[in-house]
Specification:
Blueprint: H1 10-31, H2 35-38, H3 50-70, H4 75-98, H5 109-129
Helix pairs in contact: 1-3, 1-5, 3-4, 4-5
């Protein structure tokens, strides 16, 4: 049986659900209760209205989250797209830190810095969900 059709390890299945639910929740929050807070993460150099950026990124996050959960056979593709998206919006987290912009409860340099450190864990979770991280020889992917 090929690795594309075999069942992934439980840790990858859990990571897929965690990443998918997290992305969908983040997307919903972009569109609703945290909409203003997310505007603090939009860098000044983005040539669009900050609210439009927040709404568009929220829609993308919901789509990626649903794709991770609802399309298990496409987990590798969805995990890759999710990671690429998270990396693409990382400059917003950096801008929030550098500009000392309060938002989403990140009201101190320390909290904003910790947020920067958490982001790579989100990348790793998405990559693991898709089986895109290297494994040791002999271990099931």
């Amino acid at each position: 049986m090929s690795s594309r059709t075999s069942r992934p390890p439980r840790s990858q299945q859990v990571a897929r659900w965690v990443a998918g639910a997290g992305m969908a929740f983040a997307g919903i929050s972009h569109l609703t209760f945290a909409r203003d807070g997310f505007q603090a993460q939009v860098p000044n150099w983005v040539p669009m209205d900050t609210d439009e950026v927040v709404l568009l990124s929220g829609a993308v996050e919901i789509s990626l989250g649903l794709g991770l959960v609802a399309l298990p056979k496409e987990r590798r593709r969805m995990a890759g797209l999710t990671t690429a998206f998270l990396v693409a919006v990382f400059p917003g987290n950096i801008a929030q830190y550098r500009n000392r912009a309060d938002g989403l409860g990140l009201d101190s340099d320390r909290k904003r810095f910790v947020r920067l450190l958490v982001e790579p864990l989100m990348w790793a979770t998405a990559l693991h969900a898709g089986g895109l991280l290297p494994t040791r020889p002999g271990r099931r992917r």
